[in-house]
Amino acid sequence: MKFLKLAAAAAVVATLATPAALADKLDDVINNGVLRCAVVLDFPPIGYRDANNEPAGFDVEYCNDMAAALDVDAEVIPVTWAERLPAIVTNRADIVFGGTSDSLERAKTVGFSIPYAIYFAQAVVGKDSGITSFEDMKGKRVAAAVGTVPEQEWLKIAEQWGEENLYQGYQSENEVFLAVAQGKADAGITTNTAVKPITDQYDTVVPGPRMPWTTDYTSVAGPRKDVTWLNYINLFITHQVRSGRYEELWQKYVGDTAPELRIPGVLY
After folding, report:
1. Burial, 213: exposed, middle or buried (Cβ in 10 Å; 0-12, 13-18, 19+)?
2. CA 87 to CA 24: how far, in whole Å?
3. What is the spatial distance between Cα 264 and Cα 103, in angstroms, rounded to a whole number?
4. What angle do helix axes 227-242 and 245-253 make, rounded to 10 degrees?
5. Which H, E and C letters describe the chain, residue by residue?
6. pLDDT tens track for 232-263
7. At 12, which helix (H) or strand (E)?
8. Secondary-structure breakdown of the chain: helix, strand, coil percentages, each rounded to the nearest 5
9. How far apart are CA 237 and CA 246, in angstroms?
10. Strands 216-223, 95-101: parallel, antiparallel or unpaired by DSSP?
C-alpha cells in the first residue's frame, strides 16, 4: 500500500511538471501573440524616437522583423543601458535589442546570440575642448552611460592616469550628449554610429577621437537557460544576413556598408 501511494504521488508530480518542462520562451511568445523587445531609445540611429515620438531605428526594425517572422505583434519596451539585463531577468521583456556586448560576466546572468551588430567606441567632444586625439583626453572631464562597455573601459584608463575623479556617469546617452553640449563634460564616449546624428543635433559638439579598445561585437540577449529560444534568435539573425535585410537596414540608418559580422578565427 505504501508503495502504491508513493507511486501515485510520483505520477502526480510528473504530470504537473511535464507542461512546465516542455514550455519555453518560443512557445510563450507565440501563445501570447506578442514579442516584447527591450530597446535603448537614446542610441540614434540604432534606437531613438522619431518626430512623432514613436520608437524607430535599426534595433526597432529588427524587433518588428522578428515579430513578423513569428507571426505575432511587436512591443517595444524602452530601457536604459543599465536596465537591459534586468529586463530579461525579471521577465519584463522576451529579448533585448540594445547593442549588448557578450562578456563572460554578463553571460552568467543572461544568454547571448551570435553577433548581430558591430561597433567601435568614439568620443564626441565640446567644440572648444581642444580634444583632437585620444591623448588629448588626459586631464579632461569624460562622460559615459552607466553600465556600458565604454564606461568600463574608460574607467580602466582613468585609473591608469589617476583621473577617476574626472569621470562622469549618466543613466542615458542623451544625458551624456547634453552634458557635453552644455560644457559640463569635455567629452562623451559613445559608438561610431551615434556620432553624426549627435554632432548634427548640437552646434557645440564635434566628432572626437576613436577609443583604443577593440571592436565591439554585440549580441541579442535572452533568458540564459532557454536554449531553444536562443537557437531561434541565432537562426533569425542568420536569415537577416542571408536575405540582405541586415545590409538594407544598416545602410538605411547608418549610411554605410554593413560590417562583416563574423569574428576572425571564430566559427559559428
Report:
1. middle
2. 17
3. 17
4. 80
5. CHHHHHHHHHHHHHHHHHHHHHCCHHHHHHHHCEEEEEEECCECCCEEECCCCCEECHHHHHHHHHHHHHCCEEEEEEECHHHHHHHHHCCCCCEEEEEEECCCCHHHCEEEEEEEEEECEEEEEECCCCCCCHHHHCCCCEEEECCCHHHHHHHHHHHHHCCHHHEEEECCHHHHHHHHHCCCCCEEEEEHHHHHHHHHHCCCEEEEEECCCCCEEEEEEEECCCHHHHHHHHHHHHHHHHCCHHHHHHHHHCCCCCCCCCCCCCCC
6. 999 999 999 999 999 999 999 988 789 888 87
7. helix 2-22
8. 45, 25, 30
9. 8
10. antiparallel
Amino acid at 168: Q
CA-to-CA separations, 160 to 87, 134, 141, 167, 231, in angstroms, rounded: 33, 14, 15, 13, 40
**CA–CA distance, 111 with 85 (Å, rounded to integer):** 10
Give the predicted TM-score (pTM) of the model: 0.78
pLDDT, tens digit, 9 for 90 and up, residues 108-132: 999 999 999 999 899 999 999 999 9
Looking up cell 556617469, which residue turns up?
A: 169
The amino acid at residue 13 is: V
**Which residues sit opposite 25 in a β-bridge?**
none
